[in-house]
């Protein structure tokens, strides 16, 4: 058997979020699937019912030896990654959501032919993931004004992606007041009053923003960004600078690194990861280095 024949024996299970991208996720998947089938690969697609179903399907497919393809947005990628990590398998992605920040961060092609070629011929790369209270997240965990914005985004799925991703932070700012956080980074404890705490692996979210520019998803560390308390107008100017990546030099921004972080606050604050609320405080976030094998 030639090397080319070997890669064509790959079997693929696509785990598809049917509501991603305004309900058009299968339209993103089908041209990729057609090319995989034409190359002689075994292909099947399973629409998901909920988060638990997505994780279960992904884990079973990974344990079977299939390449498990997440078809959807960052939330679908997170859930499939959860199952693939637990199943010890290999994952691929077909971006079909509103944000697609991890796909953008990793430079995945948007063309179906290029995506199919990557799935057929690509070599898996080892990426780090975050464990947040037992849930796996390949991107980022955020707790504060941006997690409140995530709640607003998810409550307005009918609005165009770019519009809702820009309006949600404004609405969140109007509703938000700074919280008192207790952080423990690799055993070092500190108390801060802040607008948000981000524990980053990829560093990218918010529809194409590099919120934590130093973060690299395969460097064996997590990056923590704390945005300290200040006037609301400070948050607005922060968001403007975040579009250019110049916000990390602001005096209220603190950057830390480590491999394990525990976050708590003086009131309930949503704990979000890769587009969804996934946990409650206190949140323990641990880096799992090289745990996800991904075709990227």
Write the layout of secondary structure elements.
Elements: H1 3-8, E1 11-16, H2 20-23, H3 25-38, E2 42-47, H4 51-64, E3 67-72, H5 74-87, E4 90-95, H6 101-105, H7 112-121, E5 125-132, E6 135-137, E7 140-144, H8 145-154, H9 161-175, E8 179-185, E9 188-200, E10 204-205, E11 209-210, E12 222-228, H10 232-242, E13 253-258, E14 260-265, E15 271-273, E16 276-279, E17 283-294
Parallel strand pairs: 1-2, 1-3, 3-4, 4-17
Antiparallel strand pairs: 5-6, 5-17, 7-9, 7-15, 8-9, 8-14, 9-12, 10-11, 12-13, 14-17, 15-16
Helix pairs in contact: 3-7, 4-5, 8-9, 9-10
Question: What does this 3D model show about the protein?
Answer:
With 296 residues, the chain is of the alpha+beta class. 35% of the residues lie in helices and 34% in strands. The protein has 10 helices and 17 strands. The strands form 2 sheets. The protein has a 15-stranded mixed beta sheet that branches. A hairpin with a 2-residue loop joins strand 8 (179-185) and strand 9 (188-200). The protein starts with a helix and ends with a strand. The model has no long low-confidence stretch (mean pLDDT 91).
